[in-house]
Amino acid sequence: FTIVPTHAYAKPASVVRDLVVLLDTSGSMHGAPLDAARRVAMALVDGLDEKDSIELIEFSNQPRRMWK
Fold first, then answer.
1. What is the helix, strand, coil percentage profile of the chain, to 5?
2. Cβ distance 48 to 19 under 8 Å?
3. How far apart are CA 68 and CA 66, in angstroms?
4. DSSP state of 12
């Protein structure tokens, strides 16, 4: 017989996340590596909640922010 505290079943409090995605688009990332990086970035974005924020920085020769 096991006794489990009721708080063990409570929904965990949501944590607001600030996600920064740095995406290398240089020549060395051409093809499959870039496709894989894009899939990972999209999976991270799909996991965000409406309270979360995201910053996307793409770089090859110089960094470029998605939003100013």
1. 30, 25, 45
2. yes
3. 7
4. P
Structure tokens at 27: 């020549």
CA 16 to chain centre: 13
Tokens 């079943």 sit on residue: 9
User: Which residues, at least 6 apart from 37, have a Cβ–Cβ distance to it below 8 Å?
Assistant: 23, 24, 29
3-state secondary structure (DSSP) of residue 46? helix
Helix H or strand E segment including 45: helix 32-46
Average pLDDT over residues 2-9: 62
Tens digits of residue pLDDT in 15-53: 888 999 999 998 888 899 999 999 999 999 898 989 999
Q: State yes or no: pLDDT of 6 exceeds 80.
A: no
Question: What stretches of the chain adopt beta strand conformation (E)?
Answer: 18-24, 53-59, 63-65
